[in-house]
Amino acid sequence: MKVFHLKKTRSRVHHTRRYPLYALLALLLIACVTLTILWVKMAGARRQVALARQNLAAGVQTELNAAIRAFEKHELPTADLKGDIIPTMRIRLHAARTGNRIMQDSYREFIVEEQTLDQIEDAVDQVDRMLALGQNTSPAIGVLGSCLDQMEADLTLRFADTGLFVSRTALK
Question: What are the pLDDT digits (tens) for 12-61?
Fold first, then answer.
């Protein structure tokens, strides 16, 4: 008399023939887990690259903004063009140019065009030469101001949505 009845017949495949199937299933599981881990790591790396690009862009914009704000000090009665404003602008423009080149080399994009930075640096050099010669700096300051105004307008238009570039009108 049988007490237990099997509802399903047992597999007639020898157990040694099932091992390759188990190995294949284990390899598929390992491959899925590995691909998932790689996908998560690559997504994290992409986020880090985007964050680095954003931080570099913010740094360049900050330096350009600081150069413009340093130039605005020339209207003050105690302004020291030769000792304070021109050196500060040179430092800020050099930092902005360096960050801009890093962005161009790394990400194939830029904050401000090299020609614009060249024009501004030429205008700063002209102001510095006129100061060294003891000549009137008003025309050179006017040219420098127009170059900075044009760059500021371009940057404000380009980065209005980020809020990283603070225009002169916002400071008044």
Answer: 767 777 888 889 999 999 999 999 999 999 999 999 988 988 888 888 88
Side chain identity at residue 18, one-letter code? R
Token pair in block for residue 73: 């000090």
The closest alpha carbon to 128, from 98, 90, 171, belongs to: 90
Give the integer Cα–Cα distance in Å for 139 and 129: 12
Domain residues for 154? 59-158
Q: Is residue 44 part of a domain?
A: no
Residue 23 included in any domain: no
Task: Report phi then psi at 110, rounded to 5.
Answer: -140, 160
DSSP codes of every residue in 44-71: HHHHHHHHHHHHHHHHHHHHHHHHHHHH
